[in-house]
Amino acid sequence: MSRVAFLGLGHMGLPMAKNLIAAGHEVRGFDLMDAAVEAAKAAGVPVTEFGIDAVSGAEVVITMFPAGRHVISAYQDGLLAAAEPGTLFIESSTIAVDEARTAHELAVAAGHRNIDAPVSGGVVGAENGTLAFMVGGTDEDFAAALPLLEAMGKRIVHCGGPGLGQAAKVCNNMILAVSQIAVAEAFVLGERLGLEHQALFDVVSQASGQCWSITTNCPVPGPVPTSPANRDYQPGFAGALMAKDLGLALQAIEQTSTDARMGRLAQELYAVYAEGPGATRDFSGIITDIREDLV
Ligand code: NAD
Questions:
Q1: What pTM, to 2 d.p., does this model score?
Q2: Whether residues 113 and 128 fall in one domain
Q3: Which of 16, 31, 90 to mutate for ligand 1's pocket (most ligand atoms within 8 Å of CB)?
Q4: Which domain holds residue 284?
Q5: Of 18, 41, 154, 169, which residue is the catalytic one?
């Protein structure tokens, strides 16, 4: 069992911290926001007054922050200095590949170890301990982190060296965005051709157009009763989070001069979608905007 500091007890971090405690780890949490601190206390997660108090004496430090700038500044503004030499830093926020590499270099320069371990599976996956972790780091650090990741997740893939967990995440979400748009366009086109939703679903879900965006996240109500379309597009995976992840994809596309026109277009469409009510609706709700010619 490990002594773990868990920083960032928001929608994802708090249930992840709870699962670590349930697996027998000793967790001290910290968050900057009073509401998150109160929720953590109510959920039985011990919290410290300052981040450095949680970190001092911990064997592992997990961060689950909104964005890369929070990670870099927290590392630089005391976390790395407060940790015992050789502490394993697990960075689980979704951040840019180059930010993950910067965080890794900062941690190593301060005498620590670091992996990037972003997740997919959303709040439900965090609560149920069924997250997927995509990990970038050395073999030794991956092996050391594995028992902790297994307490919070179900599928854990070592993707390669530092930053490559984030690389896998950004590539996956770019595919997801493009496929969700393609499925939405196909349903709208089908409607205009007189095709019933169920008929199109029955064909595509068993044919070569088959993908998660239709079989699980079907953007029209009916064919998949559990998809967000059946509950007025309550997320699920909110448009704002998809727009954020596509912003990271665009950054990676530009830095690598990759000819990713579909990814660029998906980023443009989701940026527009997330400017409106789509920010808090499931990202499959983009079908409404496509139907009404809003994106
Ligand atoms: P959130 O905003 O609910 O939680 C982030 C928490 O970090 C906040 O409570 C904030 O106060 C805290 N924080 C920020 N800076 C801090 C610091 N220096 N010290 C301590 N606490 C600090 O966000 P979330 O939904 O939990 O997402 C966290 C990360 O996981 C994001 O990077 C997001 O992109 C990623 N993610 C989220 C989902 C999802 O469905 N919510 C799914 C996959 C990945």
A1: 0.95
A2: yes
A3: 31
A4: 167-291
A5: 169
- 59 ligand 1 Cβ < 6 A: no
- Nearest atom, ligand 1, residue 35 CA: 9
Residue 116: strand pairing partners: 91, 136
Q: Looking at the structure, do residues 91 and 236 belong to the same domain, yes or no?
A: no
Q: Which of 146, 161, 176 is the last residue before a domain boundary? A: 161
Tell me the C-alpha distance between 135 and 117, whole Å.
Answer: 4
Same domain for 213 and 123: no
Quick check: is 169 catalytic? yes
Is there a single domain that holds both residue 223 and residue 197? yes
Instruction: Determine if ligand 1 sits within 6 Å of the CB of residue 241.
Output: yes
Say which CATH number the domain at 186 has.
Answer: 1.10.1040.10
The reply to whether ligand 1 has any atom less than 6 angstroms from the CB of 16 is no
Amino acid at 224: V
Instruction: Name the residue of 6, 7, 9, 12 to mutate for ligand 1: max ligand atoms within 8 A of Cβ.
Output: 12
Query: What distance in Å separates the CA atoms of residue 61 and residue 119, rounded to the nearest whole number?
Result: 16
Q: Does ligand 1 lie within 6 Å of residue 61's CB atom?
A: no
Question: CB-side exposure of 155: number of CA atoms within 13 Å?
Answer: 8
The CB of 239 under 6 Å from ligand 1? The reply is no
Q: How many structural domains does the chain have?
A: 2
Q: Which amino acid is at 180?
A: Q
Instruction: Assess contact for 121 and 11: CB atoms under 8 A.
Output: no
**Digitized pLDDT (tens) for each residue of the chain, 295 residues in all:** 999 999 999 999 999 999 999 999 999 999 999 999 999 999 999 999 999 999 999 999 999 999 999 999 999 999 999 999 999 999 999 999 999 999 999 999 999 999 999 999 888 899 999 999 999 999 999 999 999 999 999 999 999 999 999 999 999 999 999 999 999 999 999 999 999 999 999 999 999 999 999 999 999 999 999 999 999 999 989 999 999 999 999 999 999 999 999 999 999 999 999 999 999 999 999 999 999 988 8
Instruction: Please tell me the residue having the least CA distance from ligand 1 atom 40.
Output: 122
Contact 223, 198 (CB under 8 A): yes
Please identify, among 113, 130, 161, the residue that sits at the C-terminal boundary of a domain. 161
Compute the residue count for the chain.
295
